Amino acid sequence: MNAKQVRPLVLCYHAVSSTWQSQLAIPERALERQLGLLAKRGYVGLTLSDAERRRADRSLPARSVVVTFDDGFASTLRALPILAEVGFPGTVFPVTGFVGSGRTLSWPGIEHELTDETEAELRPLRWSELETLHEVGWEVGSHTVNHPLLTAVDDARLDTELRASRREILDRLGTCDSVSYPYGRADERVAAGAARAGYSVACTLTMVHLEDEPLRRPRVNLASADTGLRLRLQVAPPMQSLRRSRPARLARTLHRNRSWLPQAD
Ligand SMILES: [Zn+2]
After folding, report:
1. How far is the CA of 32 from the centre of ligand 1 (A)?
2. Cβ-based neighbour number of residue 213 at 10 Å
3. Which of 31, 144, 186, 225 could bond 190 through an S-S bridge, CB–CB 3.0 to 4.6 Å?
4. Residue 217 CB: number of other CB atoms within 10 A?
5. DSSP 77
6. Which helix (H) or strand (E) holds 79?
């Protein structure tokens, strides 16, 4: 394979739960099946920053996967033994304003999820739990302080969201090289803000973006239904290229993903 074309498969998950019926939650069994299939196919698990470094120095394995979890749901901990079983490290992106706040996760797009039954599912990871993940080899990146749609905030707020979240993770864990943009969205101005804040890699969602550059790396958002054939198609390299290059598919996907976005967008 041409070294230039080797790139990691970057997966995006949110919560991990068998009982929470939400598009944000993947059941443990489905996660096991998806990652088990990749391990069987020879995929090597890397953190997002490691994958970026190895991509830059051309030492990326022919098949590598980065398993990311947005938002920092406490249920991310349920993924820990599942990833350990296949030897993949995870990369988690907490929203720092919620960590240790005692508040459940809430922002435009998920605030309707809160009920008496789902309150526990919306609990954020604690700093001690993020430390544990960091200690076992997971990467902890930023998902901003408050989870705004960064393309819609002014420059001052953009800088605060990106810098203050990175600062806090740096202070707590000693490292913070990556950021996942809320709602998977970033334009050139947002990517420039991430560079100013000191991040070396950042990710969007494939469904939303065609760009593939260090501060706008696309990810595949896998729903629990994506097992078997659909997963096989999604992770095959030609299909990845096809997905990025077909405007029609992008348009359909944008339409499908609209529920993720704040009303204002
Ligand atoms: Zn998010």
Report:
1. 22
2. 11
3. 186
4. 24
5. G
6. helix 79-86
CA 143 – ligand 1 centroid, Å: 7
Neighbouring-strand partners of residue 65: 9, 45
CA–centroid distance, 4 to ligand 1, in Å, is 30
DSSP-assigned letter for residue 9? E
Whole-number Å distance, alpha carbon 3 to ligand 1 midpoint, is 32
Residue 211 structure tokens: 């760009």
Distance (Å) of CA 182 to CA 24, 205, 213, 256, 261: 14, 10, 18, 17, 9
Contact, 164 vs 143, CB < 8 A?
A: no
Distances (CA, A) of 16 to 39, 53, 72, 76, 134: 19, 28, 11, 6, 18
Number of other residues whose CB lies within 10 A of the CB of residue 249:
14
SS3 50: helix
Residue 1 C-alpha to ligand 1 middle, in angstroms?
34
How many other C-beta atoms lie within 10 A of the C-beta of residue 13? 26
The model's pTM is 0.86
Structure tokens of 165? 């979240």
Q: Is the dihedral of CA 141, 147, 151, 156 positive or negative?
A: negative
- Sequence letter at residue 196: R
For the chain of 265 residues, list the mean pLDDT of each consecutive stretch of 10.
70 95 92 94 97 95 96 98 98 97 93 87 97 98 97 97 98 98 95 98 81 90 58 52 44 44 39
> Between β-strands 9-13 and 220-221, what pairing exists: parallel, antiparallel or unpaired?
parallel
| Confidence (pLDDT) at 236 | 54
Which tokens sit at 14?
A: 């949110």
Inter-residue contact 34 to 231 (CB < 8 Å): yes
The 10 Å Cβ neighbour count of residue 247 is 8
Find the 107 Cα to ligand 1 centroid distance in Å. 9
